[in-house]
Amino acid sequence: xxxxxxxxQIPYRFDPTSTAAAVESxxxxxxxxxxxxxxxxxxxxxxxxxxxxxxxxxxxxxxTGRVQLxxxxxxxxxxxxxxxxHLGDWIGVTGEVLKTRRGELSxxxxxxxxxxxxxxxxxxxxxxxxxxxxxFRQRYVDLWVTDESRAAFVARSQILSTxxxxxxxxxxxxxxxxxxxxISGGAMARPFTTHHNALDLELYLRIAPELxxxxxxxxxxxxxxxxxxxxxxxxxxxxxxxxxxMLELYQAYADYTDIMELVExxxxxxxxxxxxxxxxxxxxxxLDLSTPWQRATLLELLAEHGGISVDLDTPRTELVRLCExxxxxx
Length: 330
Hints:
Helices cover 29% and strands 28% of the residues. The protein is of the alpha+beta class. The strands form four sheets. The chain has a five-stranded mixed β-barrel with strand order 1-2-3-5-4. Strands 7-11-12 form a three-stranded mixed beta sheet.
């Protein structure tokens, strides 16, 4: 496709032949200053542009990553219009893959077209959004400028698909249960309520799929699971959402020790499949998700970490005393 002036007609469709990640994978081994002879077509958003007289550089970002654009006044059509693009504009570019003398893998802009104009352009340099409210209320902006957010979305998708395959391999049946419930049950939370006009009936958005999953086990399905969207009309914060996704499963003829083993095996498997290792870092702490996990009762953990020896028969007065000594409100 030929170069397109900013005032030209925007195409209805565009056909990329490659992605930023594929360009890096296929041509990352080029030597500094080497041309590949291969022409690719990519599309994405212009996230950075540097104009240097008769040469301009830009960073094009698609769903797989970023790649540098290398435009020359003598060979790039409508070069002045290219240097007038807004940051955040969606563009399509065709050109030869090369590596600059400074060792930057690039696509030479032999032709280009603006696919959509960014009405609200990005600043010159982005290192992610630091304002928490903006990140959560304008997630679409956060995804473009914060690599960690994009990675989290990809990881979440991988976790869900991998979980499904892992459970199905163990003969679990995925089901869908009703979202509208005639009673509020299955967990302790305040429900969202709604009204069914045809039945003139008050209904509740589910706070958990538990009750209907248990009915399926009564009906003869011995292993069932649901990756369910649930709703809880409670407080909200960056760590609590009124709607979220949960995995709930039931297995007949098993006890809590079987489910403990299932959970640790699943989580360990997910860590390997998604992250490539069971040793992860979270908030500065190293977590080892390899099996088997430590097993301990709550009372054992109280004794280990709090130095408190209590049991279910400890008098309330003694419990109050222990709390007051440690400035724990009762």
